[in-house]
Design goal:
Helix content: 25-40%
Strand content: 15-25%
Number of strands: 3
Oligomer: single chain
Number of helices: 2
Largest sheet: 3 strands, mixed
Order of helices and strands: EHEHE
Structural class: alpha+beta
Shape: elongated
Length: 77
């Protein structure tokens, strides 16, 4: 869509995404994306839900899950 509108990526605008869908690596230009550990996010979410069902008055704590920035052609320094 950017190319059709006359914008050069990444010169005129930069594009980044989340979740590293397969399309991101195979489109032109390849899209910079954040790749999260979806399996770990899912496990921690289910664990938190189970805890709430087992003990509805319990406090959930913050959870941090790692990620990786995959720099590709759609961004520049």
């Amino acid at each position: 869509a950017c190319q059709e509108a006359g914008f050069a990526v990444p010169r005129d605008t930069m594009i980044s995404g989340w979740d590293d869908i397969p399309f991101a690596a195979f489109c032109t230009p390849q899209i910079t994306t954040i790749s999260a550990d979806i399996a770990t996010i899912s496990r921690k979410a289910v664990s938190g839900l189970r805890m709430l069902f087992d003990a509805p008055d319990s406090q959930l704590s913050d959870v941090t899950v790692g990620y990786q920035l995959l720099v590709r052609e759609s961004t520049s320094a």
